[in-house]
């Protein structure tokens, strides 16, 4: 009778207590064996009742153990008893920044140091902001139909072909002094190859104030390249853009003699990284800024090209293939 009560009320705190309980009742020298031993000596008239009671107790002990086993069985429902603080953690994979973003953010942080802030503009642009206000009249060759994606055959709506459109948008709404940087996607109707794509990224820079000179432009770009590439040499070559006068293209020396942080493509010499110039007075007039009072410079660079130089990426298509083996090599920060 007492045993029945003990079994019914048994409530172990851990698997060890359950195991001790099992040994106590079912073990070789356990209570049930002991009772079966006694059964032999029980007088015949009570044998039946005694036997039934032992069997009942045995049944009860077995049921109890089976139900509690389930409770401690790890393959079954999770319970707080499963918590094992010594187990190794599950791997937690951090994503990485896309190389375009890594370099874009680096460039932004460099120009932030000298007072540039970030401005944004739409990727679907009208003719005025993408071309006309930038001194590209209707028949200007730079508007070559083949290079531009038009929206719905509407000649007034294009996918912007450069971030220079943001210059116009910003100057229309803001008075000098202006110091902005504008990163974003641009589109050109070009065949896709290892070196060119119909979608890529540019960063535009714009500075308008009183007495801005070409020397300011050169110093700004020199500061920028040495921050981005380490100690580096640049040179400016005369060039032409409809919206700047004079215009220049900037090369950075990518050779053995420079101590750039990214001296990777040894001996490749001078490589073009951006276009720039002093804002054409016509452009300032188009956005109602007085060219007699203000002057400024602008520059634009392709981000893909710079990333390819810095990280030895040989094919521009890799940026949009989303191959995890390439992407995971880049920073989880920045
Ligand atoms: N918009 C020019 C291009 O896409 C780059 C540029 C920007 C040149 C600003 C001069 C000034 O090639």
UniProtKB/TrEMBL annotation:
Top-level class of the enzyme under EC nomenclature: ligase
Residues in coiled coil: none
Cross-referenced Pfam families: Phe_tRNA-synt_N (PF02912), tRNA-synt_2d (PF01409)
Chief location of this protein within or outside the cell: cytoplasm
Enzyme Commission number(s) from the entry: 6.1.1.20
Domain Aminoacyl-transfer RNA synthetases class-II family profile as annotated: residue spans: 103-329
Keywords: Aminoacyl-tRNA synthetase, ATP-binding, Cytoplasm, Ligase, Magnesium, Metal-binding, Nucleotide-binding, Protein biosynthesis
Superkingdom of origin: Bacteria
One CC-aspect GO term: cytoplasm
Oligomer and partners: Tetramer of two alpha and two beta subunits.
Transmembrane segments: none
Key word Magnesium present: yes
Protein name: Phenylalanine--tRNA ligase alpha subunit
Cofactor: Mg(2+)
GO molecular function ontology, one term from the record: ATP binding
The encoding gene: pheS
Sequence similarity: Belongs to the class-II aminoacyl-tRNA synthetase family. Phe-tRNA synthetase alpha subunit type 1 subfamily.
Cellular localization per UniProt: Cytoplasm
Enzymatic reactions: tRNA(Phe) + L-phenylalanine + ATP = L-phenylalanyl-tRNA(Phe) + AMP + diphosphate + H(+)
Stored SUPFAM superfamilies: Class II aaRS and biotin synthetases, tRNA-binding arm
Organism: Apibacter muscae
């Amino acid at each position: 009778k007492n045993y029945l009560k003990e079994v019914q009320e048994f409530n172990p705190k851990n698997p060890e207590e359950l195991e001790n309980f099992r040994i106590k009742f079912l073990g070789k020298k356990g209570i049930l064996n002991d009772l079966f031993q006694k059964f032999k000596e029980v007088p015949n008239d009570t044998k039946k009742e005694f036997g039934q009671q032992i069997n009942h107790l045995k049944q009860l002990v077995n049921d109890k153990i089976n139900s509690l086993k389930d409770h401690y069985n790890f393959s079954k429902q999770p319970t707080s008893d499963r918590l094992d603080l010594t187990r190794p953690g599950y791997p937690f994979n951090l994503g990485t920044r896309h190389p375009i973003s890594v370099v874009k953010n680096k460039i932004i942080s460099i120009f932030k140091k000298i007072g540039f802030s970030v401005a944004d503009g739409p990727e679907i642009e009208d003719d005025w902001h993408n071309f006309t206000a930038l001194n590209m009249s209707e028949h200007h060759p730079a508007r070559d139909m083949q290079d531009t994606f038009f929206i719905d055959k509407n000649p007034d709506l294009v996918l912007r072909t450069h971030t220079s459109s943001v210059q116009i948008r910003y100057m229309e709404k803001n008075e000098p002094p202006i110091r902005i940087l504008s990163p974003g996607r641009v589109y050109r109707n070009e065949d896709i190859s290892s070196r060119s794509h119909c979608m890529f990224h540019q960063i535009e820079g714009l500075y308008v104030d009183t007495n801005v000179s070409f020397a300011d432009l050169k110093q700004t770009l020199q500061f920028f390249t040495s921050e981005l590439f380490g100690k580096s040499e640049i040179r400016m070559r005369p060039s032409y853009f409809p919206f700047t006068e004079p215009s220049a293209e900037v090369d950075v020396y990518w050779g053995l003699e420079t101590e750039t942080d990214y001296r990777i493509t040894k001996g490749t010499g001078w490589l073009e990284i951006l276009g720039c110039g002093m804002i054409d007075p016509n452009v300032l007039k188009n956005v109602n800024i007085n060219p007699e009072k203000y002057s400024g410079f602008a520059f634009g660079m392709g981000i893909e090209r710079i990333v390819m130089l810095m990280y030895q990426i040989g094919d521009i298509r890799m940026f949009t293939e989303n191959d995890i083996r390439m992407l995971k090599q880049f920073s989880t920060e920045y």
